[in-house]
Amino acid sequence: MNTAPGTPAGDPPGPAPGKAGEVSGLLKPFLPWLAFSAVTGVAAGAATVALLGTINAVLNRPGGMAGGLLLTFVALCAVALVGRAASSMSTNLVGQRLVAQVRKSLARKILAAPIDALERYRTHRLMPVLTGDVDMISDAAFVLSSALIALAITLGCLGYLAWLSPALFGLLLLALVVGVGVQTWAQARGIKGFHKARDAEEQLHKAYRAISDGAKELRMHRARRAGMYGGQIEGTVDRIREINWRAINTYVLATAFGSALFFLLIALILGWAALRTMPPSVLSGFVLVLLFLKGPLDQIAAAVPGIGRARVAFQRIADMSARFATPEPFLDLDQPGEPAALADAIELRGVGYGFPAPDGGEAFVLGPVDLTLRRGEMVFVVGDNGSGKTTLVKLLLGLYAPQQGQVLADGRPVTDQTRDHYRQLYTTVFSDFYLFEDLAAEAGQGGSLPERALPYLQRLEIAHKVSVKDGAFSTVDLSTGQRKRLALVHAYLEGRPVLVFDEWAADQDPTFRHLFYTELLPELRDKGHLVIVVSHDDRYFHLADRVIRMDHGRIVEGAAPVARPRRETAAA
Ligand SMILES: Nc1ncnc2c1ncn2[C@@H]1O[C@H](COP(=O)(O)OP(=O)(O)OP(=O)(O)O)[C@@H](O)[C@H]1O
């Protein structure tokens, strides 16, 4: 259901809803593999424990290892080896598939997310998730497999020790409760720190963007540059270093405490043995297994910080995933689909859209707007900065779904089901356009692409710089104005019924600007395209069939369709 314009469309602050569901959703497809990994890991652990038991038995009886015992030993070695390899490989497989799936799923979610949701989730928040957080999971997948096997071995050893001597096991259990308690405390503290560091990393990414995108401006402004480096980057980097240092130190101290506890436990067991008589096989078995256990326990302790960081990364991924959990309905990512056709007109009927108010500012509300645009018309959309021209165009293009009213193409309302197909009517060159180098989508339209492109490149006076080779422009390293011309070549090649140019001519030299308004646009119109031009070039407004003037989100002039007086040549 549509909401009234002005309804805040922003996400509430704090974590997105449904994160737990997202995490379990991400893990669900891998449960059978995880189960296999657990079973083989437990088998490897049990075989290792049995090996230790066998060694202890051999140490405490005359005759050494021979006959059946030797065969058992070899068989146990084989189970431990195969189990460990199978468990590690399957955990590694899960890790890598999980990372691949997360990458694909995030890309699909971004591709299918409503544009306004993407505009709210800033790029400096997107990139750390797509790169850093996903890599963190990939790294954790490596350590996780050996940590899981170490856990299985530890549990098996504990079972063996409980069987060997329940009394000594009681003592061990006490030490374990203290050790695990300290590790849990360290993990909670560490994760808190990692969350803080991760927040700071977002700030760092913002600063990195500023120094790459704003390199020229920073070169020209010493005070800002000093503030950017000394204030923002150094400060943030040092804060991250400090937080991570403290967080990891917590783990280090907990591990050191665990080691001390471990040797204290061995001393206690040996002291116990001095006070109470116990079979030597029990004592040697206990000490042997405990000493062996130090290895897996250290492995687990070493893996814990990485797993803690991976948990933080996983939550960030799940958070982003949940924010984009509602894709635009009926947006097909897999099929190119049929081209769209427009026989007559596009209409906006009572269309309204509101942005949420910025902090301390007023909300911008567009509409309600009524507008009819016909094929073969050349329409200029004009108005002051911030009057709503681009917002109107985004509603027209179907990039924003109207919060009120409806858009119609040839009299048929554009619905959620048809919006994506409807968008294929348009070719756009936005003021902040992105130029795709490859022309693969245009290759299938018949004729050789380089031959089709050449006249347009010549007409736009960039044929000496760019050609089309292997389905792509040979270069896009051009001036801003030339890049925009290339975008126009793309538009010609697409040949869609409606062309939208948002301040296209702003970067063109006067001669070419003149050519654009007086020849190129009228030619496109005369070929039957609907041409929509957002412009501040009032010198050329008289060439339009209709000038739509925006003011404070409303159309104040030019809403009514007019019969277009046919011109012999637009320049006349
Ligand atoms: N992503 C956004 N989030 C919140 N508010 C926005 C957003 N985009 C635009 N606005 C608000 O909508 C108003 C209209 O913006 P719009 O880009 O449509 O203006 P415009 O007429 O195209 O301006 P210009 O001539 O400067 O390009 C702005 O004043 C701004 O407050």
Automatic annotation (TrEMBL):
InterPro entries: AAA+_ATPase, ABC1_TM_dom, ABC1_TM_sf, ABC_transporter-like_ATP-bd, Cyc_pep_transpt_SyrD/YojI, P-loop_NTPase, Type_1_exporter
Subcellular location: Cell membrane
Region (Disordered): 1-20
PROSITE patterns: ABC_TM1F, ABC_TRANSPORTER_2
One Pfam match: ABC_membrane
Main location: membrane
Gene Ontology cellular-component annotations: plasma membrane
Membrane topology (UniProt): Multi-pass membrane protein
Record GO terms (molecular function): ABC-type transporter activity; ATP binding; ATP hydrolysis activity; ATPase-coupled lipid transmembrane transporter activity; peptide transmembrane transporter activity
Residue stretches making up the ABC transporter domain: 346-571
Protein known as: Cyclic peptide transporter
Organism, as annotated: Roseateles chitinivorans
